[in-house]
Design brief:
The protein is 13% helix and 48% strand. The protein is mainly beta. Strands 1-2-3-4 form a 4-stranded antiparallel sheet, with no helix packed on it. Strand 1 and strand 2 (16-30) form a beta hairpin. The longest helix has 12 residues, at 76-87.
Length: 89
């Protein structure tokens, strides 16, 4: 599990901080054999955000917590079967 936090101040007077924190599973891979740089993908499990305009907050809430779940997980065999059906047209 990894987490990433991004925060800043929208204004100092009045004091108005804002932030986003995400937590999830990390997957890394290199794009080429000759490069030390790579890519990282985070599959979200949970996120928090606060101080951002437009958040659907209830009265007296200062942050939003969201749990991210896969609702329609498709098995690999079902995906392959649908791909064959599409390719056969």
């Amino acid at each position: 599990m990894v987490s990433l936090v991004i925060d800043d101040l929208k204004s100092i007077d009045p004091w108005n901080p804002r932030f986003v924190k995400i937590m999830g599973k990390q997957r890394s891979w290199n794009t080429t054999v000759f490069s030390a740089r790579g890519n990282t993908r985070i599959t979200l499990k949970k996120s928090w955000s606060g101080g951002i305009d437009g958040l659907p907050l209830k009265k007296d809430e200062w942050r939003l917590e969201t749990i991210h779940e896969k609702k329609n997980s498709v098995k690999k065999e079902e995906l392959e079967r649908s791909r064959v059906q599409i390719d056969s047209f």
